[in-house]
């Protein structure tokens, strides 16, 4: 038997003298690079994305959310009106596509506004309430790239429409925390606040303005503008000087009307019932204008590390109305996938590696190659994972590939074996081999590798 294989290897080496199946791979200077703030999703990244997607699917099934994906570009007006013209996202970060159009399109900077557009357009207001949708896809913001901040990034999100009950807000937090827990990110804290409604918020904005006016000259340029255009945004200014001034600013909670106060109390009670760790954060207002009442951000609690928001969300009961639909309640949240993956990597979370075949099919000679092609399909139909390299003619290089892939069993088919209706099964570990009838090989090998 060993002699047959020896002969085959010799034969292949001779054959290989005439056949060049390697392409030269000398390094050249890289001419094109990916755009700043973007990255290639490599096979080693997909294992994480798959795992996150699976956790979302599992949670969505349990909590009754259905998947939706909207286009990655929309009429820009949806975002200007939905997120708010005075926000950083709309003012500074939106990728616009003009292309000679009167009304530009925009690459979606976030998912909620497009989803609400679809909700209205598809008449989801008539669906059984609450309408529960989840999504998973790429988003685009022209931000300064830095750790955890990309220009193309991925989010998954869960949104509920049609119910005002505070239990919806608490459950939104719970679903996100549960997806994160499933991904071994167990230590999270939810920062939460209420920014009231359009009835009580003006009262608060007036108080904030009265407080900030005397400090006007000490505020950053952006905040000076915000005093006039969108004063709430001053609360999440990143400038240190503004931060210090705002530390003693009046708190939104003090100005809430009775209904908003009751709602917020309800949310906190349910969050406590669910034993979700939280912290009241009076400076939390979120960078998007569509929110009312509850707003929250979810952080990973990592020792000695700067806090980074994994997720953000809240209630947006006015957005459907703003975008032209029949008013209805809404609440949701979205999670930054890159930040989750980074944490999973840092925590060395075990991910499923892609399944490696335990079997390799090597062939030698043209009639064996034809037979091997057919045999390969038989293995596929029998659901047996098998590796091969049909573009190689040399047996030596095929065996060395099987070795590099760490495959234990190699099936070797030469011209002689084809004529005799047999195939060689070689155990690369014990270095032994035997012949099997060709028409029984699938079933026999399947048993063996099980
Ligand atoms: P957001 O806070 O802007 O909210 O984004 C949610 C999460 O996406 C953030 O917490 C962060 O993890 C991630 N993220 C945001 N920008 C970037 C970036 N440039 N690079 C990497 N990750 C980023 C929203 O987008 C809302 N639509 C959430 C929502 C859903 N509210 C209600 N429903």
CATH superfamily of the largest domain: Bira Bifunctional Protein, Domain 2
CATH topology of the largest domain: BirA Bifunctional Protein, domain 2
Spatial gap, N to C terminus: 25 Å
Helix content: 25-40%
- Give the rounded overall mean pLDDT: 92
Contiguous runs where pLDDT drops below 50 for at least 5 residues:
1-21
Using the alpha-carbon principal axes, give the shape. Answer: elongated
Portion in strands: 15-25%
Which hetero ligands occur in this complex?
histidyl-adenosine monophosphate
Oligomer: single chain
Explain what the structure shows:
With 450 residues, the protein is of the alpha+beta class. The protein folds into two domains: 43-200 and 256-346, BirA Bifunctional Protein, domain 2, CATH 3.30.930.10; 355-449, Anticodon-binding domain (Rossmann fold). The chain has 16 helices and 16 strands. It has helices at 2-16, 43-63, 76-83, 88-92, 112-121, 166-182, 201-212, 221-229, 240-246, 258-273, 319-322, 337-346, 366-381, 395-404, 415-420, 441-449, and strands at residues 66-67, 73-75, 96-97, 105-107, 131-140, 152-161, 188-194, 278-280, 292-300, 309-315, 330-336, 359-363, 387-388, 409-413, 422-427, 432-437. An eight-stranded mixed β-sheet has the order 1-5-6-11-10-9-7-8. Strand 3 and strand 4 form a beta hairpin. The longest helix is centred in the first third of the chain and has 21 residues, at 43-63. It is elongated, with a radius of gyration of 30 Å. Mean pLDDT is 92; it is low at 1-21. It binds histidyl-adenosine monophosphate (HAM). Histidyl-adenosine monophosphate (HAM) binds at residues 110-112, 141, 143, 148-150, 153, 155, 157, 159, 309-314, 316, 332-334, 336, 338-339.
